[in-house]
Specification:
Length: about 325
């Protein structure tokens, strides 16, 4: 009898220890990038904060390397509540949520600092709020650096060099028009298909920031990278409204706060990774064109603004961004 009681007590305490470390609910979060990439690490950090602050009621598991699918598909799955959270570029949201087009406009931001100021302010909040009408909760913006063209053919030194070349863009109509306005041809396709498409000559190249150019290995098949920096597209962390609605108001607040608290972590990791990635691709023999006159690129974007910034709402957002010092 005594032995039985002791065993029961031991079992009970073992179960409690387990409970202290186990998570009641684990939110599944998608990311296209590999383990260790700044976005992946930042969401993991958010998960640690959340677990601690909710006493283990909520945890996050990040499914990196596109394990849950390509961005366009995972966005739909997050809307349906199949995936709980998603870290994606704003680009693939352009065709769904018009407000996301504004910070995705070419040359809209003067610098990363300008982008931070805008996205941390009322325009950023307006964009986060816009996700609610699409079964999503906009939680926070992450950095996506500046995006530039790279290709397998030749160094691009001016806009004329782009003529007739074929570049992959994210699945956003606006980016197709952006590339056409520069005199090149655009092929929208999922990120995961870019490497082989360059390798087999289906496309000449693509466009992205230093960390993606490096981590995807695209530099191995497209060694000419030109710093025209046509886009500074922020990235966004969203949650499925279906998953969010299941939480208590207290836990909803914990999610929102932990997401916000992961932003400075992300920005620091991002700044470090940009430098490291640049160094890695340079060491590997990538040919970088840094001396490029951006003026013709900027001027060529007028029709893109005319086509996409049509409503008073979007015009006001553009004005507010331009007026942000
Ligand atoms: C990366 C971004 C990804 C994805 C990718 C792409 O810079 O972090 O979310 O959008 O670009 O070009 O598809």
């Amino acid at each position: 009898m005594k032995l039985k009681t002791l065993t029961a007590a031991l079992l009970a305490s073992a179960a409690m220890t387990g409970a202290a470390f186990a998570c009641e609910t684990t939110l599944r979060s998608s990311d296209t990038h590999p383990d260790g990439y700044p976005t992946v690490v930042a969401v993991e950090k958010m998960g640690e904060l959340l677990k601690e602050r909710t006493d283990g009621r909520l945890c996050i598991e990040v499914f990196h390397s596109a394990q849950l699918g390509e961005e366009k598909d995972t966005i739909e799955q997050t809307q349906f509540g199949v995936i709980d959270m998603n870290r994606v570029s704003l680009g693939p949201f352009n065709n769904i949520i018009e407000e996301t087009q504004v910070p995705s406009l070419p040359y809209i931001f003067r610098s990363t600092e300008h982008m931070h100021k805008v996205m941390d302010g009322p325009v950023g909040q307006q964009i986060l709020d816009a996700f609610a009408d699409h079964d999503l909760i906009g939680l926070a913006f992450y950095d996506g650096g500046s995006r530039s063209f790279y290709n397998s053919e030749k160094p691009i030194k001016s806009m004329e060099d782009l003529a007739g070349m074929k570049f992959r863009v994210m699945q956003s109509d606006m980016f197709v028009d952006m590339v056409s306005a520069l005199g090149a041809n655009a092929t929208p396709m999922p990120y995961g298909e870019v490497y082989s498409s360059i390798q087999t000559g289906v496309i000449d190249g693509a466009e992205n920031n230093w960390p993606s150019y490096e981590s995807s290995g695209h530099f191995e098949v497209a060694k000419y990278y030109t710093l025209d920096q046509h886009l500074i597209v922020p990235e966004v962390l969203v949650m499925s409204k279906a998953a969010f609605d299941k939480l208590s108001p207290e836990d909803q607040e914990a999610v929102r706060q932990a997401a916000k608290d992961s932003v400075p972590v992300m920005r620091e990791l991002w700044a470090e990774r940009e430098k490291a990635s640049e160094q890695k691709v340079r060491d590997a023999g990538a040919e970088i064109v840094t001396d490029i006159d951006k003026t013709p690129f900027i001027e060529a974007m007028v029709p893109v603004y005319e086509k996409y910034v049509t409503s008073d709402k979007l015009k006001k957002m553009v004005e507010d961004i331009q007026a942000t010092e």
